[in-house]
Amino acid sequence: GGEAPDARADIARKYTLPVFTCSAVEYQKLQRLRLDDGTAQVFQDVEDTGLPALSRFIHSNILRLVHAHVLRQLKGVDALLTTVKSVITQGPSETPDADLGCRIKEAIDGCLAHSKEFLAKLISNMQQSCAQEYDKAVQPKVTEGVADASGYALWTCQQWSHNAAPTPDRKRGMHWATYRAVCRRDGVWQHHSLGLINWNEELTNPAYAKFAVAWERLFMTILPRHLESFKDQVLQELQSFAAQVRAQLLQVTPSLPQLDHVERGVRSVVSNKVTNGMQAVKKILQDQQREISRCLAPTLQSQLIPTYNTALAESGTGSARRRTAIVETKVERHGTHMLQASAQPLGRQWGELLHRVWQVEVTGVMEGVLK
């Protein structure tokens, strides 16, 4: 009985991490999951990592910037409301025309209709241009990548077998029990010494490697360039709109108090809305970029699950050989078709993202600007 507290203390020490790491890579080194990348960089105290201090610094600066931004917007809105109220209250005293407000609204609505039509066409053209960029730069690489993956598929499967010949990276093929365990987990398993095994990714990696550069360039260069061009054209159109409104208002009533001040306030608010809206759209693109491109492996996995289950059901003498034969035969006969099917969601999800960006997000920003 006297040894129990010591035993509990030993267990607690054994399962308590006494050091801190700054990244997943360092943690993998510490856990001996990554053996060929040097020793792990560890810290005895979480403050020694510098991460808490960095987090506090970032949070304080973000809060300060948000406060300043909100305060600036509120002051701008307050100034705009003050000047608009001044125009409304002083306008009737400058002219006896009781219908001045209606005439002003009619003049503004006429200019607004023209701008709405222009922006709708611009959004449609930009969406079509982005779709053409994908068809020209990415889709051919996807097709080539699927062809490459199809060519490597059977060879890749054969390397998993316990009968596979040794390679420079591996002394032998996968043990039959490990092979069976991977089948049980639908092609994905975290092995205690081999690390993460993901057959589905291994089969689709040649395809991903082929289109990855073009995909990255589409999201990091081409689409931001289109959004920047769109923003510039929108601001130019809104400047033209403001000039047209000013001309129309001066025709309605030659002397509107503080018209210049109102115009400057409106332009500032509109410019901020457009700029912030485009930044939000860019953030959506960045968030979706990697998620969409990684759809190949899960889609292929869903097609291979019945094969994994059939292979897993094998038992008895010779079951290891029959199990590998089931998987390899499926990939040999249907691998090309399955890989082609696994790439189809890429184009479909890209189309859905394109529609969301231009017809929902960007259109919503423009509607907010023109209200």
Automatic annotation (TrEMBL):
Lineage summary: Eukaryota, Discoba, Euglenozoa, Euglenida, Spirocuta
Pfam families in UniProt: DUF7605 (PF24564)
Name the UniProt record assigns to this protein: DUF7605 domain-containing protein
Ranges where the DUF7605 domain occurs: 157-334
